[in-house]
Amino acid sequence: MQTPTIKKRTKLSSVWIIPLFAMLVSIWFVTQHYLNRGTEIEIRFQSAEGIEAGKTLIKTLNVEVGVVTKVEINEDLLTVRVLARIKPEATNLLRQDSQFWVVKPRIGSKGVSGLTTLLSGAYIELEPGNDYPGKTSFVGLENPPLNRTNKDGLNIYLVSDASNSLNAGDPVLFKGFEVGQVTQIEILNSKKLKTNIFIESPYDRMVTSNSRFYNTSGVSFRLNAQGIDVFSDSIESTLTGGISFDLPATLSPGKAVTDGTEFKLYENKMAIEAHPYQYSVDYLLLFERSIRGLNIGEYVEYRGVRVGTVVDISFDYLPENQFDSANAPKVPVLIRLDPGRILGEDSPAAVEKLTKILNRHVKNGLRAALKTGSLVTGQSYIQLDFYPDQSKSIFNVGLYSSIPTTHDDLDSMLSDIGVFADSLAKLPLTQTASQVNNMLASAEQTMQEATQLIQSLNQFAAQGKQLIEQPSAQELPQKLNTLITELEKTLQLFSNEKGLASSLDITLHEVQSTLRSIQKVADTIESKPDSLLFSSPRQADIVPGKDK
Amino acid sequence: MNFIKITLIAIVSSFLFACSSQPEPSTQYYLFPYPENKALQQRVEIALNLELAPYLKTDSIALLKEGNLLQFAHYHRWAQPLQVSINESLVDKLSNQLPGKVVDDINQLGGLQLQIVRFHGNLQGEVMLIGAWSIAQQKPEKFILRMQQSAEGYDDLVSTMDLLLDKLVQQIVKQLI
């Protein structure tokens, strides 16, 4: 009997390789799935309008980078939480400053956008920022951001007194071309507004330290001593609002500016031309006469050259109680002198320099006077000039220094008389006197010639007398009389009613009658050409008194 | 057969008769009756400046048919221009009826100015004469005269028109004497 040899087989059966392999493959699949699932992110929105779990895509530059997996309401019951998975290869886009917003059809003053989503459905746009990656929780934007982080350009702040109907998204224009837009408007306090604008590259190079920004909404008019000015920009900005920047006519481009530079936003283009300089000195002028015809914005001139502007006219500038207490209160006019215009230098140092120079000149007789610029419109302006007979110096009124004023009406009259006297003195009197002498000499000669002429006329008259006394000349009147009588007889023949005139009249009448008959014949032939050959039966005339 | 012949002859003859035309009435010419002057040699002739409406300057006699419709007769015409006829008739009548001194005075003032604006008859037998007369620069005296024809026809119309001229002369004489 054979005893079976039992061998213990310690090795596993090779059959197990198959399930093992299957398990490994499964593990590899699962791992692969998890690895490919991507990063889960959370975005908060005000509402989930147009977003659907499993359908709404997340796109960057129109490339699909993820999909929404879940939409739920937050615990605060005011916002929604959108959970989405971003593809592994796109996780790099999830940066600290990445932005999300829903792209859907929008209609606004800037036009229509997102029309393609009408058919495809809304999607979430992911705009990667520039910061480091690794963020998974975001707050979504309600509207597309105005300044794209992937665009080069310049962010600038403008400070203004009033908003002047500006809105985020309004265009920023340079020479009429849109170069950027308003990104945000903040209220700093009850009087100041801060407007953020973004200027796209390469136009950001146009902005320099001397650039002036102004509001281009609407159309503005101004009537001044120089006439009427009308300002308006492009139709779009006139209707919807906008900001323009430009260099004032008197300034050259300044230094380049950096991101975040603050500028003043002027009310309109006239305002930047009126005060194109950053630094200026304000003086208060006190007038003793009526300043009717002087407007804010009017020019201040020194002997015809513009040196500044009238900034304000108000009794507020007088120290307290000055209006009540003074005997005849003066009218305060605030003027702004620009060192840039006078000294060609726009800096704080130039301001000090101008103050010193004006102090010196006022001591030497520099005065401010009100002058009429246009007799038609009655507009006035302020003229600075020297009046040497007065000696005063700059004094302070309230917060401002004051340049002494003077009456100019008499003065202008005196200067006119002076000019007249000058031109009188320039008259060539000596030359005129010699010319008069010459004239007198020639007049004497003419007189002599006239005497000769009279003598020859006398001779002529004597000869005429002889001629008349001749018998043939004596007969002349009688012959003329005969001729006239003959003529009268002939004329009578014509005027006699039964004579030539009468028969002429009858002939004329007959000619007229014949012409009328010819016209009748012509009319008949025209209406009935065959009437020449075939006479049409004519009805008998109606009989007078037939119906009696 | 006999009936057909008669019918054919009747049709052919009716065609032939249709082609024949009626004899046209001849044109009649009219003139105002010549005044019978008793003392033609002694009288002074008045100077008359007559102005006729343009429609009266045609040869045909004008007749108001109905409303504003005026018809000029084709077969009844004036023998001479109405201007001449009226002038002749009025000068005779006025010179006869006005004293010689008055005529002299009128002639020295430039004669009598007479304007006739309407002078025609109508189907009802009424003849009208409308116009104005004046001496020198005085205010014109207007006149509107009407008269009924005694019988129908153009001959009686011309007689009635002459009677109307008589009536006008009487009116003028009455005003001047």
UniProtKB/TrEMBL annotation, chain A:
Transmembrane spans: 12-30
Primary location group: membrane
Alphabetized InterPro entries for the sequence: Mce/MlaD, PqiA-PqiB_transport
UniProt KW DNA repair keyword: no
Keywords recorded for this protein, A-Z: Cell inner membrane, Cell membrane, Coiled coil, Membrane, Transmembrane, Transmembrane helix
Location within or outside the cell: Cell inner membrane
Coiled coil: 433-460
Domain (Mce/MlaD) ranges: 38-129, 154-213, 290-386
Pfam families found in the cross-reference section: MlaD (PF02470)
PANTHER family: INTERMEMBRANE TRANSPORT PROTEIN PQIB, INTERMEMBRANE TRANSPORT PROTEIN PQIB-RELATED
NCBIfam families: PRK10807.1
Record protein name field: Intermembrane transport protein PqiB
Source species of the chain: Catenovulum sediminis
